[in-house]
């Protein structure tokens, strides 16, 4: 009997956040036949290339999100919220709650709690509460309640304060190649002069792979209340 397929929902503050930080694992799961959905709470359009119109770049970012998802046989959702203006409020929690109830993911991946970028920190807060709301049956919304049982926080150079790798997930060269090909469709990954994104995350996946005694890996934190190891004997 084949294993049941997973649905993974990766939620970032901007288009490209989850594609970079968890993209190898997403590609690995896509090759296993699992369903991949990305949700960006903003497009991240204010990282616009010099001389390009912000609104045009937003459209480009949405196309890049869709292209990445399509290469993984998945789906992309991008909220129409201005980059840098994501609000930490109940309206946003309910919007994300509704996406969770609609997608019904087994796994949610999002940002770690600390970040140099306010949209990342705000996304972390929104997603944690939205996951709770989504699983709360008495909270009546259009779709029935659904609780995503697994929540992971991806490793991101911008979210590094107090981040300590807790879970290592390895992936194959085939998944690595698919990830690199897909994530390279994002302009900022290959074209940004502010930070060598592609080089950094390619090397990070190899370093984490070596630490895990594997070829490639990405690491994740989990909610502190779930950080326990259960054994019946030593």
Describe this structure in words.
The protein has 234 residues and is of the alpha/beta class. It has one domain (7-226): LmbE-like (Rossmann fold). Helices cover 40% and strands 15% of the residues. The protein contains eight helices and seven strands. It has helices at 17-21, 23-31, 54-71, 90-103, 118-134, 173-183, 187-191, 197-211, and strands at 7-12, 35-40, 75-78, 107-110, 150-154, 167-171, 216-221. A seven-stranded mixed β-sheet has the order 3-2-1-4-5-7-6. α2 (23-31) crosses α6 (173-183) and α4 packs across α5 (118-134). The longest helix has 18 residues, at 54-71. The protein starts with 6 loop residues before the first strand and ends in a 13-residue tail after the last strand.
Q: What's the SSE blueprint?
A:
Elements: E1 7-12, H1 17-21, H2 23-31, E2 35-40, H3 54-71, E3 75-78, H4 90-103, E4 107-110, H5 118-134, E5 150-154, E6 167-171, H6 173-183, H7 187-191, H8 197-211, E7 216-221
CATH topology: Rossmann fold
Largest sheet strand order: 3-2-1-4-5-7-6
Helix % is 40-55%
Count of extended strands: 7
Supply the CATH class: Alpha Beta
**Main beta-sheet annotation:** 7 strands, mixed
What would the principal axes of the Cα set say about the shape?
Answer: globular
